[in-house]
Design a protein that fits this description.
The chain is an alpha+beta fold. The chain contains 4 helices and 4 strands.
Length: about 140
């Protein structure tokens, strides 16, 4: 009977620890954001932990762009920020849940996979217009 009581106490402790970890992870994730700027600085934006747009700033240089160019620049910049926030989320969740099915579920539900690679760019394009990503 004493062994069963000890097992139950250990189980209760494990559940309480899991609840504390879930609460801590949630609080940490809620404070996250990531930002990115377009290569020449026309667009700067910030996204939250789920990748949702929180803020966007357009400089006067953005007005010189055609609507289609500006739209594409905003989308590309948002994807950079979403990739950054996805990597932050994966890093935090790895600390709390480790590598496994739970982390795989988190990765699958990010706006863009955290391990997705950027589209191929020529070296000339990359060095002429390096990405600017800030956390």
């Amino acid at each position: 009977m004493e062994a069963a009581a000890q097992w139950l106490a250990d189980y209760d402790r494990a559940l309480a620890d899991a609840a504390d970890n879930a609460k801590a992870a949630d609080e940490t994730l809620q404070r996250l954001s990531a930002g990115a700027s377009s290569p020449r600085g026309e667009v700067t934006l910030r996204v939250g932990p789920g990748g949702a747009l929180q803020d966007i700033t357009l400089t006067p240089a953005a007005r010189a762009l055609e609507a289609e160019q500006l739209a594409q620049l905003i989308l590309t910049t948002a994807q950079d920020a979403q990739r950054s926030i996805g990597n932050q989320v994966v890093g935090i969740m790895t600390d709390y849940v480790g590598d496994g099915p739970v982390l795989d579920f988190v990765k699958q539900n990010l706006p863009e996979a955290a391990d997705a690679e950027e589209p191929a760019r020529s070296d000339d394009d990359y060095f002429a217009n390096p990405p600017t990503v800030f956390g």
